[in-house]
């Protein structure tokens, strides 16, 4: 690969399009292989593609052993800072390698073999990073589940991934409350095995099985002083062993990195689709390692010894790629922050962290910037800290509105970089490739397609639209390394979910346009996925939870505009005939129900009770019209509407 100074974006992009095989074989040199690949792309089973079909490697060895061997053993690999407890801890590369090797030994001791799944349900503590890398070390497939999800979401994921072991902790800490994980894990398992002594909750998304059929054998619990609950209290419940992390470690022997095929699955990460059943995005070892290593230098401009802080959560793809794997594959220092941008203790948290850890690149979500702006509009806190090490603030996860962009970009001494991607791709589809060549910024645009991605805008029939015209954003196949090769549970669902609507292309589910200069603009989703504070949620999943309330006849959940979170979920419900329930009570019960089943992260609070939902004559709920009315936008009465007076009633209910 040429030196940074000599590369231009145009050249790199052209090469990735015209000579993809050479381009990605060359990029594979950024990774240490056990058997170096002789080929980049395997297209024999198109539209299912694999990268580096004959390569073998170990990702944890690339993230740890490699840097110790290169003399970076004493460099900080992981800096942990908990604003929730005030505790801080650093791990050098040598120390992290030791911890990961030992925990790999714990997993082995519990019967985890190459290819077995391990569910990880942990808060933002070092154990999350250690558990993930330990899985990678022995070729086990991790599936991290975000701590803000409740029992039902956990159960659905456990049932789909069939893990042998669950790694968890007594809990997480949110401002003002502890989130106890163990009762949630127990409830999830009880839902799967139909243990009525623990929970009555049964949902249509879970097929009850017997305890003998349950894949989970052991739950490993990391005890946290700040949160009640430990393994001993739960041991034996729902037919599984609950064991203590620390006790297990004392008995464990360190384990070396095993050789795995580049095409083996490294992890499964569930993401919301149109239905309530989440999709298990599969990530491979080889393609992902190469793509991340390439992105670290070409997009983020992060090199060995640099400090990157991604203020996300390990439960999201951003956390997988840029808290855990990316920075460590680059020999950099990664920062793990347990806390919020505001309120823990104040809106200066981000700037304190930058000063304290000498952060070069900070990666966060627009919603966090809006939260800071609301608390500290004059950025008084920024002036209290020396943030001179910061060279760029990267944002992703939702659309970066131009107002937020200008506000933060004007105040900081360094550029703010919007970039667009999704759980499925694993890394940016469109970005400003700062590590190659910083391009001029156009506010409202995440800049240009990243080398490897062929972005096209098509109409509903798959025809390319003119520059500047909005349409469905699709990616021409094959997707570059790092992007999902398939979904867990089979290629069929992958093909039908993403590759069928526009043959030869991957449908991103986003709409937008590309301007005359090739800049991409992402405007919103074309499906029923909503984005609340950078968290991706399925309206179908929320509807399923609400439908379980005995008073509800019909429900539509819509994403409405929210000043802080971008969008928030609003429920529109009708009641079963003859139901007499106080509306205030109903709203409280529905909010509690969503919190209990989907989780607090849904931040569900808005319920509107209607006599009827607006529908077409064929019975389809007019979601777009409901959203337009809720957002106070002008709208057209759809020609297919069954009864236009329903809209008048909706307007009245919303006080429009
Ligand atoms: N475990 C348990 N509960 C969680 C949780 C977790 N890991 N994360 C969030 N929650 C809870 C919150 O406590 C809150 O509960 P509450 O209703 O009792 O207050 C609820 O879920 C909603 O959380 P959130 O949407 O995060 O709102 P917030 O008010 O706590 O904070 C922001 C608002 C903007 C500060 C916050 O959303 C934020 O930092 N967002 C960054 C988004 C991000 O990193 N996205 C990842 C993609 S890059
Ligand atoms: P997730 O899979 O949770 O990362 O969510 C991905 C979705 O978030 C994308 O499909 C977009 O809808 C949205 N998104 C992420 N980043 C951006 C961005 N920079 N601009 C606009 N939308 C974004």
TrEMBL record:
Its EC number is 6.2.1.17. It is an enzyme of class 6 (ligase). Residues 542-620 form the AMP-binding enzyme C-terminal domain. PROSITE patterns: AMP_BINDING. Pfam families: ACAS_N, AMP-binding, AMP-binding_C. Residues 67-475 form the AMP-dependent synthetase/ligase domain. Keywords: Ligase. Residues 9-63 form the Acetyl-coenzyme A synthetase N-terminal domain. GO terms for molecular function: propionate-CoA ligase activity. It comes from the Bacteria. The keyword Iron does not apply. InterPro entries: ACAS_N, AMP-bd_C, AMP-bd_C_sf, AMP-binding_CS, AMP-dep_synth/lig_dom, ANL_N_sf. Belongs to the ATP-dependent AMP-binding enzyme family. This is Propionyl-CoA synthetase. It comes from Agromyces flavus. The lineage of its organism: Bacteria, Bacillati, Actinomycetota, Actinomycetes, Micrococcales.
């Amino acid at each position: 690969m040429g030196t940074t100074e000599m590369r231009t974006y145009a050249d790199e992009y052209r090469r990735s399009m015209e000579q993809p095989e050479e381009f990605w074989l060359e990029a594979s040199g950024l990774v240490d292989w056990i058997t170096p690949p002789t080929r980049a792309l395997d297209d024999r089973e198109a539209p299912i593609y694999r990268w580096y079909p004959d390569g073998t490697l170990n990702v944890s060895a690339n993230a740890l052993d490699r840097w110790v061997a290169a003399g970076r053993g004493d460099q900080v690999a992981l800096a942990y800072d908990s604003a929730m407890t005030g505790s801080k801890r650093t791990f050098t590369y040598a120390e992290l390698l030791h911890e990961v090797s030992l925990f790999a030994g714990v997993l082995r001791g519990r019967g985890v073999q190459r290819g077995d799944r391990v569910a990880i349900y942990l808060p933002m503590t070092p154990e999350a990073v250690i558990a993930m890398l330990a899985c990678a070390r022995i070729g086990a497939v991790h599936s991290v589940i975000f701590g803000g999800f409740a029992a039902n979401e956990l159960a659905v994921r456990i049932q789909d991934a069939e893990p042998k072991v669950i790694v968890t902790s007594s809990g997480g800490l949110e401002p003002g409350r502890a989130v106890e994980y163990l009762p949630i894990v127990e409830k999830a398992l009880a839902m799967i095995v139909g243990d009525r002594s623990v929970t009555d909750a049964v949902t249509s998304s879970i097929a009850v099985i017997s305890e003998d059929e349950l894949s989970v054998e052991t739950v490993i619990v990391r005890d946290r002083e700040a949160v009640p609950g430990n393994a001993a209290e739960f041991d034996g419940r729902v037919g599984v062993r609950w064991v203590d992390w620390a006790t297990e470690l004392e008995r464990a022997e360190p384990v070396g990195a095993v050789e795995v095929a580049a095409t083996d699955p490294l992890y499964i990460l569930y993401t919301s689709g149109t239905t309530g059943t989440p999709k298990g995005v599969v990530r491979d070892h080889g393609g992902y390692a190469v793509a991340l290593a390439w992105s670290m230098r070409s997009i983020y401009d992060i090199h060995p010894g640099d400090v990157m802080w991604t203020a996300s959560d390990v439960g999201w793809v951003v956390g997988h790629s840029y808290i855990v794997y990316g920075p460590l594959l680059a020999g950099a220092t990664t920062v793990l922050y347990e806390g919020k941008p505001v309120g823990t203790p104040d809106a200066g948290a981000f700037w304190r962290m930058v000063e304290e850890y000498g952060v070069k690149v900070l990666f966060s979500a627009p919603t966090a910037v809006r939260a800071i702006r609301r608390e500290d509009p004059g950025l008084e806190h920024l002036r209290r800290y020396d943030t001179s090490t910061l060279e760029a603030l990267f944002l992703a996860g939702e659309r970066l509105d131009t107002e937020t962009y200008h506000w933060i970009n004007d105040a900081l001494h360094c550029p703010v970089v919007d970039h667009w991607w999704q759980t499925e791709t694993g890394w940016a589809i469109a970005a400003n490739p700062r590590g190659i060549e910083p391009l001029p910024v156009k506010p409202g645009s995440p800049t240009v397609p990243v080398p490897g991605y062929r972005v096209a805008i098509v109409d509903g029939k798959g025809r390319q639209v003119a520059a500047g015209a909005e349409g469905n954003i699709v990616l021409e196949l094959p997707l570059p390394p790092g992007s999902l090769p398939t979904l867990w549970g089979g290629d069929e669902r992958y093909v039908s979910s993403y590759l069928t609507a526009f043959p030869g292309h991957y449908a991103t589910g986003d709409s937008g346009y590309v301007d005359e200069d090739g800049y991409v603009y992402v405007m919103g989703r074309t499906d029923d996925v909503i984005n609340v504070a950078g968290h991706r949620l399925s309206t179908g999943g929320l509807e399923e939870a609400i439908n379980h309330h005995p008073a509800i006849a019909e429900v539509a959940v819509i994403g409405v505009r929210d000043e802080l979170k971008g969008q928030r979920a609003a429920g529109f419900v009708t009641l079963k005939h003859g139901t007499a329930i106080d509306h205030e009570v109903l709203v409280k019960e529905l909010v509690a129900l969503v919190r209990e089943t989907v989780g607090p992260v849904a931040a569900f609070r808005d319920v509107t009770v209607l006599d009827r939902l607006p529908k077409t004559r064929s019975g389809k709920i007019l979601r777009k019209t409901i959203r337009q009315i809720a957002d106070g936008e002008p709208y057209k009465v759809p020609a297919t509407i069954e009864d236009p007076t329903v809209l008048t009633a909706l307007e009245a209910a919303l006080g429009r």
